[in-house]
Structure to design on (305 residues):
């Protein structure tokens, strides 16, 4: 064999490559392995739609109530509540009802969009 | 609906990420199980039962942590990394010493009538005496067909260490084979 050619061949490298090639040719049969893995996969916990709706809605409502209660507009809520109790339909009550319904619709819309 | 085998890995990963699609993940397992189990068997010195336990654990960890897969590496390379960490963790649990200068366990004898059996024998002989670090570097770069950079990622060690381990391993193997009078030990690259 030509000695010059041998200079560029690393026999260990060739040996490893040959064995690795032979190794890759040997396919290991699945033999139920995939099924066993899939059966053992844990169920991922997903937050339910109700909770996903309740969290933003609850936070928004609470923040809105706190904000309004500490401003001069707080009397607006109180007036609306009194109108509701006395069953008197006034612009204040209608305005408050519209605001609450809007809040509900936006929250439900957001929750459904996330689904 | 089962995902078609025609889907690329990345499409299946996307389905797992978006819909927690177990069938898509099952297809990924089916595709990669042979390669991964073969690789882990080399790590465990041919202990098939232990290797399959680690391979199974690897896929379960991949399922749990798939959100951390960033597409920076191939999915198979990412699996090798998880498998290597799982193997290290299992070995530690079994209170076996996993020092970088410790020697690999003797591989289990496997009867083999293929043409590659003599190559196999020579190689087993040559790999006796490699440290775990050297053995791991050889496994990743040759048997898992990874680049030095990918091997460094899988093993979690610097690139320079991988290269050094490969060189040292080859030197040891060369000396070992020369001592046995094998042709493989002669005529090393200049």
């Amino acid at each position: 064999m030509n000695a010059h050619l041998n200079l560029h061949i690393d026999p260990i490298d060739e040996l490893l490559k040959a064995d690795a090639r032979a190794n890759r040719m040997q396919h290991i049969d699945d033999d139920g392995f995939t099924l066993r893995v899939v059966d053992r996969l844990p169920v991922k916990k997903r937050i339910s739609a109700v909770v996903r709706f309740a969290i933003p809605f609850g936070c928004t409502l609470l923040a809105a109530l706190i904000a309004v209660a500490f401003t001069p507009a707080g009397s607006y809520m109180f007036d609306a509540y009194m109108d509701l109790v006395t069953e008197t339909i006034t612009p204040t009550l209608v305005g408050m009802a519209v605001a609450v319904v809007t809040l509900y619709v936006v929250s439900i819309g957001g929750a459904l969009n996330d689904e | 609906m089962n995902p078609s085998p025609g889907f690329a890995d990345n499409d299946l990963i996307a389905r797992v990420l978006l819909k927690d699609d177990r069938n898509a993940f099952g297809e990924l397992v089916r595709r990669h199980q042979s390669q991964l189990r073969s690789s882990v068997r080399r790590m465990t010195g041919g202990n098939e039962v232990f290797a399959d336990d680690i391979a199974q654990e690897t896929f379960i960890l991949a399922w749990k942590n798939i959100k951390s897969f960033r597409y920076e590496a191939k999915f198979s390379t990412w699996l090798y990394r998880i498998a290597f960490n799982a193997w290290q963790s299992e070995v530690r649990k079994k209170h076996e010493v996993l020092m970088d200068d410790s020697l690999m366990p003797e591989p289990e004898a496997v009867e083999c009538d293929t043409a590659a059996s003599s190559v196999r024998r020579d190689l087993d002989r040559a790999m006796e005496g490699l440290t775990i670090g050297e053995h791991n570097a050889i496994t990743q770069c040759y048997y898992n067909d990874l680049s030095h950079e990918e091997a460094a990622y899988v093993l979690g060690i610097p690139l320079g260490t991988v290269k050094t381990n490969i060189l040292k391993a080859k030197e040891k193997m060369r000396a070992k084979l020369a001592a046995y009078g094998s042709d493989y030990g002669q005529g090393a690259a200049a």
Summary: Chain A touches chain B through 33 residues (CB under 8 Å).
